Amino acid sequence: MIESKSNSKIKLLASLATKKGRRENGMFLIEGLHMVTEAIKFGVPLVEIFVSETSAAELLPKFKGAMCDITTVKNSIFELVCKTENSQGVIASVKLPEAKPFYAGDKFLILDRIQDPGNMGTIIRTAAATGYFDIVLIDTVDPFNPKAVRSSSSGVFFVNFHKMSEAQVLELAASHDIISATAEGENVFEMKQIPQRFGLVIGNEAGGVSDKIKNASKLVALPMEDKVESLNAAVSASVLMYVLKNR
After folding, report:
1. What is the pLDDT of residue 84?
2. Is the dihedral of CA 103, 108, 113, 118 positive or negative?
3. Residues of the chain with CATH 3.40.1280.10
4. Which of 94, 123, 136, 169 is 20 to 30 A off residue 107, Cα-Cα?
5. Selecting from 1.20.1250.20, 3.30.1330.30, 3.90.1150.10, 3.40.50.720, what CATH number does the domain 8-95 have?
């Protein structure tokens, strides 16, 4: 039982709320029964599971397959490291995945300066559900930000992230079909030819896709009523991923 906020494990968990802490320790945090049981089910490299004192009796039997230590934490201390208002009484530290070589399969995603962690998580969740398993990141929010991880609802376990500069993406566009989501693009529902292999670009919430990437892309848009200027980046990304996959 951990009973002190000065405990080294509690200090480590607190540090994982920051990008610097995640990078230095090579770990990130997951919260909630669903994410922890999914991590166990799919062999995600858990470091340690922490359960609150009042939840231990109910939750510990659910983690029998876990290949890591499980530690009980006093309720008041657990609340210091849990980031959700209505906690389910369980959090876990997870090893950050090792970077993998980028391989452009049939379809992949390019996120151009996405900054909102909620948008990031939702996009990751949909990408995993629709088979866009490789996600290129250009100056985005950290996908292992606690809010992004929660919003991904386990999707973060099943995708590969590849950090690239804008220049590297432009080099990629010279040999791959790139489709950018923009307000001035062709109606995606009326596209006559969709490449079999492509990268879909979703741009910054305020500024959209950069001009240089747009100039190297085929432009697509979602039709909207005149009263609506734009859609949330995560909503647009989700609709476009499904449409482009299934047409």
Report:
1. 78
2. negative
3. 107-246
4. 94
5. 3.30.1330.30
Residue 187 tokens, joined: 């109606």
Architecture of domain 107-246: 3-Layer(aba) Sandwich (3.40)
* pLDDT the model gives residue 104: 74
How far is Cα 54 from Cα 109, in angstroms, rounded to an integer? Answer: 42
From first to last of its 247 residues, what are the pLDDT tens digits of the chain? 999 999 999 999 999 999 999 999 999 999 999 999 999 999 999 999 999 999 999 999 999 889 999 999 999 999 988 877 778 999 999 999 998 888 877 899 999 999 999 999 999 999 999 999 999 999 999 999 999 999 999 999 999 999 999 999 999 999 899 999 998 899 999 998 899 899 999 999 999 999 999 999 999 999 988 766 677 999 999 999 999 988 7
SS (H, E, C) the chain: CECCCCCHHHHHHHHCCCHHHHHHHCEEEEECHHHHHHHHHCCCCEEEEEEEHHHHHHHHHHHCCCCCEEEEECHHHHHHHCCCCCCCCEEEEEECCCCCCCCCCCEEEEEECCCCHHHHHHHHHHHHHHCCCEEEEECCCCCCCHHHHHHHCCHHHCCEEEECCHHHHHHHHCCCCEEEEEEEEEEHHHCCCCCCCEEEEEEECCCECCHHHHHCCEEEECCCCCCCCCCCHHHHHHHHHHHHHHC
